[in-house]
């Protein structure tokens, strides 16, 4: 079980070459420098893979963790899957790290350097939809798109044909710029797909070609969601593999939860019924019955208050059963297909898939399982209320369906919360352990799985490069957003540095309020707020102009990489606890309390600690970066849980002195201006 990490001896790979030798070749080929943490990580990952033991590796920004797991994965004697949370990291692996690594290991005998990328079917253009058309609400194929998006859809169609001729991947990431709505006109999900055998374009299908390449490859790069569908929901999506490396593992629980979350609205049912009406036959009017059931569900929604549903009303329960039964009858009323090759009908397949999805979701919701959380979303503007269902926890399915069958390496810059791996390990399905001195002892529970925690540190000297400032003198944040004291503090801090500020806020309203205050008081600066433009455009402006502030919410907490003088001040307005009325998080906290635990610490504080660590991590991205993280929430210093949260952050030098911080910011600003 986890113990204090020390560098181990070089590990010989199955092909007889020490991991450290190949890593050195790869680092040299990439033009980098060898890092002790990266070497230690590669050695430990290789050991975990060969011994079949789970491993958690915290590798700080700048460690080079990608090579730290790619090299042992390439040397492992069985297929390895690498799963990422973000497209940016997936793109980095496939476009930069893996090609150079393959070049670096060319001379290693017996090594299989093949790799492939695998994504969900809707991420690939569908040649049948492009060439045969898109079914309308009656299921009739419409060949040419109409309306304002016609030009873009035609551009996407032309691009897909060019991809076919050039042997391209047909992946959405490589397509011309487009919206989600436009992409849906040239793609299908797994329920809408005819299947390779029935599709006249099956031999050319981008998704099928990607699967075939994955079958021939030693290393497969995919995402958390597809991994969850394959391993946990047991829908075969990935060729058989021995080991999985989960990068950005701090996001895994959320991504698995999202993959296992379903929703249902009356409009979904009505649309499915309309599509089905052209195809269904048999006794009565099964499509009409389904449409009637949708009306009953809409009435039940009107009688149900928005929010978490702990006890379902009779009206809502009856309506869900009615929808379930009507959808089942409607699916049964579809005529059998002849089954001949190339004889699939896209309109029929899509219509049946829509009804099947209604049935599956209604059945799950009607079951009222204590393993699920059910809630009704609030109707807003033109968007009617929708019913949602999500798993109460994911650690059980992860343990039973992934961790017991495969070797898993979890890695991220943020895995230790409160200075320990325990909170994250528990959330991932690994049993908590008890620390004894410098080691962690194994639990006596026979169902516990062997695992090790390893912190390889960071090449950054946080104590010298950064300051953590907690504005202890400010009032505790209220429910009404930012107060005058917080706005004054933000403007003073920004003014002291003359820009170069990333503001991370708990709500869109807070970000916009702060941006407006800075614009009014400091008009000589450029102040950007999330929503003013697309995030890549905002990030580009932020980098190009040093006298700029960028204020936003969640996507900025984790998804922004701006090294150098661009960002020397990160402001966090308040500790990012989940909203008290968040249906899923509140249900998880209640479940923890009910079993004798501490729901606040296990759920709310853990959630906040992960986000704060990620947010603070936006500041120091290279060994030459300098800056300050300013937290405007005094509870980080005054509350009992503050110690846990601070221990989850990088080891920055800490202060509560406003004058000292303003002086430090002015020096940073002056230094940046001279350079």
From TrEMBL:
Residues 170-180 have a biased composition (Basic and acidic residues). Pfam families: DEAD (PF00270), Helicase_C_2 (PF13307). The keyword Lipoprotein does not apply. Residues 24-300, 46-323 form the Helicase ATP-binding domain. SUPFAM superfamilies: P-loop containing nucleoside triphosphate hydrolases (SSF52540). Belongs to the helicase family. DinG subfamily. Residues 161-180 are annotated as: Disordered. One of its GO terms (molecular function) is helicase activity. Keywords: ATP-binding, Helicase, Hydrolase, Nucleotide-binding. Its cofactor is [4Fe-4S] cluster. Signal peptide: none annotated. It catalyses: ATP + H2O = ADP + phosphate + H(+). It comes from the Bacteria. This is DNA 5'-3' helicase. The keyword Nucleotide-binding applies. Its EC number is 5.6.2.3.
């Amino acid at each position: 079980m986890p113990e204090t990490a020390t560098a181990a001896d070089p590990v010989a790979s199955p092909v007889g070459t020490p991991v450290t030798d190949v890593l050195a070749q790869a680092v040299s080929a990439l033009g980098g420098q060898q890092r002790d943490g990266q070497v230690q990580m590669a050695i430990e990952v290789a050991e975990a893979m060969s011994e079949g033991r789970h491993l958690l590796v915290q590798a700080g920004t700048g460690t080079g963790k990608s090579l730290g797991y790619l090299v042992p994965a390439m040397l492992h004697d069985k297929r390895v899957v690498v799963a990422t949370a973000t497209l940016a990291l997936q793109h980095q692996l496939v476009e930069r790290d893996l090609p150079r690594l393959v070049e670096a290991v060319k001379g290693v005998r017996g090594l299989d350097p093949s790799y492939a990328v695998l994504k969900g079917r809707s991420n690939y253009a569908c040649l049948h939809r492009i060439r045969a058309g898109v079914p309308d609400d009656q299921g009739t194929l419409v060949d040419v798109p109409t309306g304002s998006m016609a030009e873009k859809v035609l551009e996407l169609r032309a691009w897909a044909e060019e991809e076919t001729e050039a042997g391209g991947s047909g992946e959405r990431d490589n397509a011309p710029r487009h919206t989600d709505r436009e992409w849906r006109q040239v793609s299908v999900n797994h329920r809408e797909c005819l299947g390779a055998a029935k599709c006249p374009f099956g031999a050319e299908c981008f998704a099928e070609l990607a699967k075939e390449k994955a079958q021939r490859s030693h290393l497969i790069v995919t995402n958390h969601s597809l991994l969850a569908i394959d391993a946990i929901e047991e829908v075969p999506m990935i060729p058989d593999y021995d080991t999985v490396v989960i990068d950005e593992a701090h996001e895994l629980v959320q991504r698995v939860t999202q993959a296992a979350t379903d929703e249902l609205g009356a409009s979904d049912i009505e649309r499915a019924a309309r599509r089905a009406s052209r195809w269904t036959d048999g006794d009565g009017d099964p499509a009409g019955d389904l449409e009637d059931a949708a009306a009953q569900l809409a009435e039940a929604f009107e009688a149900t208050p928005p929010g978490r549903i702990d006890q379902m009303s009779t009206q809502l329960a009856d309506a869900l059963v009615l929808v379930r039964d009507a959808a089942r009858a409607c699916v049964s009323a579809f005529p059998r297909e002849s089954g001949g090759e190339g004889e699939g009908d896209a309109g029929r397949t899509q219509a049946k898939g829509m009804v099947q999805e209604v049935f599956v979701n209604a059945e799950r919701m009607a079951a009222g399982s204590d393993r699920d959380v059910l809630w009704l979303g609030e109707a807003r503007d033109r968007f009617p209320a929708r019913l949602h269902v999500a798993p109460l926890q994911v650690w059980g399915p992860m343990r039973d369906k992934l961790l017991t069958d495969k070797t898993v390496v979890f890695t991220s810059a943020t895995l230790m919360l409160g200075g320990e791996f325990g909170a994250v390990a528990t959330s991932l399905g690994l049993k908590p352990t008890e620390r004894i001195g410098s080691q962690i002892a194994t639990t006596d529970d026979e169902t516990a799985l062997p695992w090790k925690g390893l912190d390889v540190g960071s090449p950054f000297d946080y104590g010298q490069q950064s300051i953590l400032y907690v504005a202890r003198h400010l009032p505790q944040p209220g429910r009404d957003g930012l107060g005058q004291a917080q706005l004054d503090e933000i403007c003073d801090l920004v003014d002291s540095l003359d820009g170069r500020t990333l503001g991370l806020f708990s709500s869109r309203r807070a970000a916009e309020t702060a941006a407006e205050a800075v614009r009014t008081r400091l008009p000589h600066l450029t102040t950007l707020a999330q929503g003013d433009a697309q995030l890549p455009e905002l990030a580009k402006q932020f980098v190009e102009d040093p006298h700029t502030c960028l204020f936003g919410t969640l996507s900025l907490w984790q998804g922004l990489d701006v090294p150098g003088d661009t960002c020397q001040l990160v402001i966090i307005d308040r500790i990012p606890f989940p909203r008290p009325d968040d249906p899923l998080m509140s249900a998880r906290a209640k479940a923890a309390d009910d079993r004798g635990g501490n729901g606040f610490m296990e759920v709310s504080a853990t959630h906040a600690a992960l986000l704060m660590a990620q947010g603070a991590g936006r500041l120091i991205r290279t060994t030459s970066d300098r800056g300050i993280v300013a937290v405007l929430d005094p509870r980080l210093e005054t509350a009992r849980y503050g110690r846990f949260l601070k221990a989850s952050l990088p080891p920055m030098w800490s202060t509560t002195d406003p004058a000292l911080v303003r002086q430090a910011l002015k020096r940073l600003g002056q230094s940046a201006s001279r350079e």
